């Protein structure tokens, strides 16, 4: 099967996304697990934190930088994260040609069910697990993406049909070019699984006091071994990971909930507002207030867009 996407399918995907994501930033879809992404401007070296998800960029281009590795995700490649990871991204976009994409959260229970069924069917070998990778999209997954976008245009279709298409997309990823790595990662086998458990703990309790020794003990490792395996997955140390997670969540609290820097600092576990401001500026390159102003358009979440009947007619004619 060719990895190139049919031009007509791609054109329909982009047209639908222009309608579903009319404004810059994130737009919540009519399905909780799906959000649309849009950027009308290029963004250089932007620290981001992605939850476990599938990210399909349909127009424009993004690059992710994690350690020494570079991940391209564009109209021909999608990105998968099996664990929550902070990394640096770059976005190629413009007013004339915005970056348009879709982010689908991973449902661990559905993934586990599909992985079990695949294992029972035989012929699907597991490979070394990876926390993040990009891989060719292909026509089958592109077609499923278009059908998902079409169902997310109306509330009834979104409620009845969209969940089954998301499940199909999970399946296509699990049997795709790097599906073996995805299944291993999401099954949380071996040392990777122990680190994944620690990452879940950090993301659930990032505002609490988190000691590396305690995390290592919960993962069933010595502290030195925990450091080694943790860095192999995240490309950073446990302390830096905890700090970056807190700072990312604080940024979102300021942008999406309108909290002040001091309130956001307290909410994510900082006792000293001045220490928070210093570490925030060192991490993001701007003061908390300046970063919130600059990134609001890119990181805010807008409510679902309800398409007028005329829009649906236009798409039906275009098909």
- Order of strands across the biggest sheet? 10-7-4-9-2-1-11
**What CATH architecture of the largest domain do you see?**
Sandwich
Please work out how many helical segments DSSP would assign. Answer: 14
Instruction: State the distance separating the first and last CA atoms.
Output: 23 Å
Kindly state the number of beta strands: 11
Which series of helices and strands comes N to C? HEEEEEEEEEHEHHHHHHHHHHHEH
Major sheet size, sense and barrel closure: 7 strands, mixed
Q: What is Rg? A: 20 Å
Q: Mean pLDDT score, rounded?
A: 91
Q: Shape from CA axes?
A: globular
CATH topology of the largest domain: Jelly Rolls
What top-tier CATH class of the largest domain fits best? Mainly Beta
Number of structural domains? 2
Low-confidence stretches: 309-319
Beta strand %: 15-25%
Measured as a percent range, the helix fraction is 40-55%
Class per helix and strand makeup: alpha+beta
Verbal overview:
With 319 residues, the protein is an alpha+beta fold. It has 2 domains: 180 residues, Sandwich (Jelly Rolls), CATH 2.60.120; 110 residues, Homeodomain-like (Arc Repressor Mutant, subunit A). Helices cover 52% and strands 20% of the residues. A 7-stranded mixed beta sheet has the order 10-7-4-9-2-1-11. Strands 3-8-5-6 form a 4-stranded antiparallel beta sheet. Helix 2 packs across helix 5. The C terminus is likely disordered. Keywords: Transcription, Transcription regulation.
Task: Note the topology.
Layout: H1 7-20, E1 25-28, E2 34-39, E3 43-50, E4 53-59, E5 61-66, E6 69-74, E7 77-81, E8 85-92, E9 99-105, H2 108-121, E10 132-136, H3 138-151, H4 155-160, H5 162-174, H6 179-187, H7 190-204, H8 212-219, H9 223-234, H10 238-256, H11 261-267, H12 273-284, H13 288-299, E11 301-302, H14 309-318
Parallel strand pairs: 1-11
Antiparallel strand pairs: 1-2, 2-9, 3-8, 4-7, 4-9, 5-6, 5-8, 7-10
């Amino acid at each position: 099967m060719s990895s190139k996407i049919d031009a007509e399918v791609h054109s329909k995907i982009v047209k639908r996304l222009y309608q579903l994501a009319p404004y810059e930033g994130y737009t919540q879809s009519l399905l909780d697990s799906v959000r649309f992404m849009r950027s009308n401007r290029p963004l250089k070296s932007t620290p981001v934190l992605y939850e476990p998800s599938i990210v399909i960029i349909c127009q424009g281009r993004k690059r992710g930088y994690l350690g020494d590795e570079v991940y391209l995700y564009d109209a021909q490649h999608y990105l998968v994260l099996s664990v929550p990871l902070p990394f640096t991204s770059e976005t190629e976009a413009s007013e004339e040609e915005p970056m348009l994409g879709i982010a689908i959260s991973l449902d661990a229970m559905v993934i586990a069910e599909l992985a079990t069924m695949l294992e029972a069917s035989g012929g699907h070998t597991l490979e070394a697990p990876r926390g993040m990778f990009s891989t060719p999209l292909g026509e089958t997954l592109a077609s499923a993406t278009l059908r998902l976008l079409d169902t997310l245009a109306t509330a009834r279709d979104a409620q009845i049909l969209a969940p089954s298409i998301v499940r199909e997309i999970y399946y296509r990823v699990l049997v795709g070019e790097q599906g073996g790595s995805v299944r291993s990662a999401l099954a949380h086998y071996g040392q990777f699984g122990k680190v994944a458990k620690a990452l879940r703990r950090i993301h659930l309790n990032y505002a609490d006091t988190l000691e590396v020794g305690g995390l290592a003990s919960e993962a069933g490792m010595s502290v030195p071994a925990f450091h080694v395996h943790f860095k192999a997955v995240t490309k950073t140390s446990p302390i830096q990971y905890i700090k970056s997670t807190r700072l990312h969540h604080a940024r979102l609290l300021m942008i999406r909930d309108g909290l002040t820097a001091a309130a956001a600092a307290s909410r994510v576990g900082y006792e000293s507002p001045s220490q928070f401001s210093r570490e925030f500026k060192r991490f993001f390159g701007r003061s908390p207030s300046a970063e919130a102003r600059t990134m609001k358009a890119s990181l805010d979440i807008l409510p679902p867009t309800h398409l007028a009947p005329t829009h649906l007619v236009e798409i039906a004619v275009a098909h």
